[in-house]
Amino acid sequence: MSSTYEIDTNQLSEQIQHQGAWVQMVRDEMAEVIVGQLDLVDRLLVGLLTNGHVLLEGVPGLAKTLTVNALAGALHADFSRIQFTPDLLPADLIGTLIYNPQTSEFSPKLGPIFSNLILADEINRAPAKVQSALLEAMQERQVTIGDTTYRLPDPFLVLATQNPIDQEGTYQLPEAQLDRFLLKVVVTYPTPEEERAILDRMSTSSPKTRTRAIVEPKTVLQSRELVNYVYVDDGVKDYIVNLIHATRYPEIIDPALKPLIRAGSSPRGTINLTLAAKAAAFLAGRGYVVPQDIKNLARDVLRHRILLTYEAEAEEVTTEWIIERILEQTPVP
Predict the structure, then answer these.
(1) Where are the beta strands (DSSP E) in the chain?
(2) CA-CA-CA-CA torsion for 242, 247, 251, 252, nearest 10 degrees?
(3) DSSP state of 75
(4) Taking Cα atoms as reference points, which of 234, 258, 237, 259 lies closest to residue 246?
(5) The whole model's pTM is what?
(6) Residue 6: what pLDDT?
(7) What structural domains does the chain harbor?
(8) What are the residue ranges of helices labelled H in 32-120?
(9) 190 pLDDT above the threshold of 50
(10) How confident is residue 167, by pLDDT bands cut at 50, 70 and 90?
(11) Helix (H, G, I), strand (E, B), or coil: what is residue 84?
(12) Residues 56-102: pLDDT tens digits?
């Protein structure tokens, strides 16, 4: 016997599968350039569908920049790549006022941040002034030059990369800025099979590194509207809240975790985990969220929102280990 809920989600799933046909087209186009990294591609698509920024962390040479370039190339959208360096100034990012001696007036010269997709390469190499300028753009989706505030284009998405190994000449991102990222994705090494495919494809003097523009930004914005209607059951909502609550009061599920966590996730983590799960359901062609969507994305949403104590760092405990324990101990609906 079909309920109203089942009929609604079935209809929504059919609409999502029709409206989301571009997703597989983008995946296929990016696969022409990128070998493997399927989870990374999907995480970037989650950010695109939720209007959320994504931080990519991994050692050099894992195709982080190439993947972002491939996504930008597959969209009919403006793209800017900004190489962050210690001597970068806020004006290099957002723009500045230029004095015109002929008119004796100042006119704005907008910076590279006025694009749909921003690749902030090695973001942790920029000093605090640049970080604060980027913070306003990421959160408010606007920048202030002189006395005037300028709105950024829509869609606007910051895809940032950072190298976890180098410490010299880097500035640790403040917690307030890390919290603005929807996801922090750890990019791992390819499998031997994937690496062999990389060798066969890229060991030429002119490997393919560009994708064709196949999707209009308007299509992405329409899909975002559909993501908003993805159904989240009350039991799944309670599961999300329980997971976030456990990062703040871990003694509820395991007293051994209490001395390891200095601070847990803010309510922004609750909101972002829900949004990301809705986008994951959209990518899967479903009109409803299942608990596995939450499990799959919990690490990427929470790993930069849990602050460890000095005791945890001394014992070499990682946030990934803590998230695994929380996922294991929290009842699944």
Answers:
(1) 53-57, 79-83, 95-100, 105-110, 117-121, 142-145, 148-151, 157-162, 181-186, 261-263, 307-308
(2) 0
(3) B
(4) 258
(5) 0.85
(6) 47
(7) 37-189 (3.40.50.300)
(8) 38-50, 64-74, 90-94
(9) yes
(10) low
(11) coil
(12) 888 777 778 788 888 888 888 888 888 888 888 888 888 888 888 88
